[in-house]
Amino acid sequence: MRNSLANSIIQKAKVDPNLFLIVGDAGLGLFDTFQVDFKEQYLNAGINEACSVGMAAGLALSGKKVIYYNIAPFSLMRPYEQVRNDICYQELPVIVVGIGSGLTYAPAGVTHYAVEDIAIALTIPNLQIFSPCDANETVACFEYAYSSNKPSYIRIPKNGDPIYNKSVDDITKLQEIKMGESKIAFVTHSNLITEVMNAADHFDASVYTMPFINSKFNYDDVLGKYQYVFVIEEAFEYGSLGSYIREYSKINVNKIGIKNHFIHKIGNQQFLRKLLKIDSCGIIERVKDSM
């Protein structure tokens, strides 16, 4: 997914000299070609997050369309004030990219988790939030965000994820990934979809993704026909997509995610998913308990 995003940025830079990329000592190797071919449109600002976002805002005010690329906790959470005041208050065309959504960087510990970033982002007016499930949705989210000229936050995991959304149409809508025969629907985002798809087979449930987290989509039109709707996330249950759908629809949403507490155990992503019961077996167990 990172490679797909990087390729999209490079292709866009070829046709838009106003694109400007700021990285925070991340993406090393990923943007080597960009540094050479577009050296006047690139800056590695180092471990300097608040200042980087401030620079992004200044460049946007001078006519640039800026992308700030860093690990998720350091692209949004550390410079929260600057994202809020410098970018979103002024509605500037800046895309904040957060790499390592959810528990992607699990071995690095809690400082590198991004499980509360959606909840934080949802508190900021004017900020579009995207959480694609695969490379196709990643490209679609970037294209939408770039053309919108609005403040945007795109959170993505790393590479190696299969393609689930074969044909991305309108990312402001729920994406139908699998149509089941039961009265159960699973809604998810990011690469937890791998676990969700496996769990869905157990119930013959339908599966949808929502790459545009705070889209003003009418969920009732699609989800109203289901007896049970589960929003399943590698994110805090409180304040993420499940909470957003509850707020803006009449759907009786069951939330399956991470409880709002610090995770003190260390392991890889799969270890933590199992521990937190958001792997496929844990999802099956929690769905059964809720029905």
TrEMBL record:
InterPro entries: PDH/Transketolase, THDP-binding, Transketo_C/PFOR_II, Transketolase-like_Pyr-bd. CDD domains: TPP_PYR_DXS_TK_like. Residues 1-163 form the Transketolase-like pyrimidine-binding domain. PANTHER family: HYPOTHETICAL TRANSKETOLASE FAMILY PROTEIN, PYRUVATE DEHYDROGENASE E1 COMPONENT. This is Transketolase.
